[in-house]
Structure formats: C-alpha cells, structure tokens
Amino acid sequence: MNAMTFSKTKLFEYEKTLSEKRVSMTPDLFLDHLIVAKIQYEDFIKEIHATFQRGGGNLFNVDQFITIGGNAANCARIIGSLGTPCNLIVNTSVWGKNFADFYFQGTRTQIITNPEDKEATLSITTALEVTSKDKKKKANIMLSSPGTLDGFDGSSYNTRQWEHLTNVHLIGIMNFVNNPKYPQLVKTIITHLEKKQKKPLLFLDVGDLSRYSLNSPEFNAFCEVLNHPYISYLSLNENEIRIMAKKLNVPFSLETLEKTTVQLSERYPHIKILVHTADLGIVAINGSIIATKKTFAINPIRLTGAGDTWNAGYIVGSFIGSDEEALEFAHKTAAFFLEKNQPPTLKTVLEYQPTEKST
User: Fold this and answer.
1) How do strand 109-112 and strand 86-89 relate by DSSP bridges?
2) β pairing state of 272-276 and 170-174
3) Which of 1, 82, 273, 304 qualifies as a FRET site for 326, CA 20 to 30 Å off?
4) Hey, is 351 helix, strand or coil?
C-alpha cells in the first residue's frame, strides 16, 4: 500500500473537519491501577509464590500507576485529544465523574452522567503487565470489578444522555466482557434511534469474549444483534476474532487471518469488520478486503489501552480519509500512545514517523 497521504500541510483543514463531527462513547469508565513487572513473568510468578508460602509480604520489582480506563473512556479520551468533540456517556459515582474530568483536561471530551442514579459506582481494574523471559511475549492480565457496568442495559440513561447519544455522527458501544447485558444495551440504543428516526454510525468493540461460552445466551444474543442493519463497525483483536470464528464455524489461524476476516464479513455483510493484531490491520466488508496494513516496529512503554487507542485512531482517520488511510492512522495513533505513553494530538500523529514491521 502507498504511504499515508495525510499531509501536515493540511492540518488546519483536518482540524476544521474534525471539529464539525460529533461522537459519543458508552457505557464504561474504569479507574485503572496498572502494575508493570520490572522482572520477567516467570521470575515474577516465583516471587509471588515464595511470598505466599511465607505468609505474605511486599514485592518491590514493580512500577505502579493510576489512570483512566475502560474501553469507552479510553477511546473517548483519545478521540477528544485528536480534535473531535466526544461525549463519554456513563453512569458512575460523583468521584468517578471528577476522576474523568481530570483526565479529560486539554481534550475535546466531556463526561455526561445521570446524577439521579444514586446507586451508580465506579468500575475498577487492576492490570498486570508482564513480559516473558525470552522477551518474545508480552501480556496484559486484567482483574476487573465492573460495578454499575455489570448488567447495564441502557434503561437508566436520562434525557440529557439520550440527547448526546442521538445527535451525533457515530456512537461507540463498548465492553461486552464486563457487561452480560451488552446485547440488550445495543438493542435499547437502536430502538431509541429508530424512534427518533436517526441513524448515526454504530461502532462495536466487545473486549475479551472468552468470558462467555460459545452457546451461552449472552453470546447467542450478541450474534443475533449483529444482524441489525444499524451496526456499522465491529472491531476485533486476534483473540476476539478467533472466538468469533469458532462460534460461527469459520476456520481460523493467524496465517489465514485475511481469509477468516472475509468469511466473517460474509456472515454480516452490512458491517465493516476491523481486525487489529500486533502485526497487522485488516478492513473487510461484504466478503471483500478493502484495506490491509502492517503495524509499526516500536518499543512500547505500556500495553494497556492499545486496542482502545487503535479504535479512536480509526474513527478519527475515517472522518478525514479513506479506509486505507484510516487504517494507517489507527496504527500510528496506537504506536504513538504505546511508545510515548501520552495521548496523541492530530499534529503529533501526522508528524510521527515509526518504522513499518518487516515481513
């Protein structure tokens, strides 16, 4: 594929276009407690075991951070930092709202809550980032307490939240893994949009599907809701597409990832299937690949939030360019975030020049 055609000289033009778009993301906001092991995974596990055997104690070979998290919140933060006005529609505690307001400073993202939902609580995740001894594998292990998100079906949105879910160009509905009522939430939003005769783009990202057995009621309901013509995008990483392929009896391997993506897009021909792995990005619709792009060779400082940042980059890139350009913009946005450990702006993504991975 040709080099990305987004030009730094058109920065003002892109900023103007993005400022006229409106996006809403829902329904999750997490406080993320990140624990980054400073020693290899195998040694870290030995230290945990030894500490347990002696009845407890301290481990010192870690760095720790507190930051904003959640698929919708992460994505909303990056969309806003890239210059597109974005609403995070969530039900959370007062402390949760203040927490989000702090992290959204300097972006075009705002949080919109339902103050009347007195039982709403903040979701919390502790994420353990580890690297194997041979340094060939890195993993992000998340321990989640979803709080209000668990069982959220959209019935407690207030009037202001519905206004910001209706009058936008795109709605992102995220995080099936922490919300068994996710399929019902999608249906609730679609029913409201149909009633208001609105049809924004609907962007779905489900998270780790391994929580649900293949024949569970939740997974069956999710596959059913994907048939609705309002669904525009489904974003999957390599683990999620593997599970989706198994559910739909589609052959899967990383070596034949493009073929699997095509077959999934044949099952849901109205949806753009977006696949993002550590090495490759793919866009397919109605049985055809419309874009592929290798990722970039970087030295990441962090792992948590990679997929959410990729989604944000793709959404923003799609507002100002083609699918091919949006795919590369997504790769660059995620690479910048992982390598620099800070939210990118439109200018920093356009100026960023990482090296594409070799074959």
Assistant:
1) parallel
2) unpaired
3) 304
4) helix
- Cα-Cα-Cα-Cα dihedral sign, residues 67, 70, 76, 79: positive
Each residue's pLDDT, cut to its tens digit, for the chain (359 residues) gives 344 578 888 999 999 999 999 999 999 999 999 898 999 999 999 999 999 999 999 999 999 999 999 999 999 999 999 999 999 999 999 999 999 999 999 999 999 999 999 889 999 999 898 998 887 788 888 898 999 999 999 999 999 999 999 999 999 999 999 999 999 999 999 999 999 999 999 999 998 899 999 999 999 999 999 999 999 999 999 999 999 999 999 999 888 999 999 999 999 999 999 999 989 999 999 999 999 999 998 887 766 778 999 999 999 999 999 999 999 999 999 999 999 888 999 999 999 988 777 65
Tokens in use for 221?
């309901």
CA dist., res. 352 & res. 359, Å (int): 22
For residues 128 and 143, what is the distance between their CA atoms, to the nearest angstrom?
A: 8
Closest CA relative to residue 248, chosen from 224, 228, 283: 224
CATH superfamily to which 8-30+70-124+147-356 belongs: Ribokinase (3.40.1190.20)
Q: Token match 């009896």: residue?
A: 249
Q: Could you identify the residue written with the tokens 């799609």? A: 318
Cβ partners under 8 Å of residue 56, min gap 6? none
Give buried/exposed letters for 334-346 (b at 16+ CB in 10 A, else e): bbbbbbeeebbbb
d(CA 123, CA 194): 30
Whether 28 contacts 73, CB under 8 Å: yes
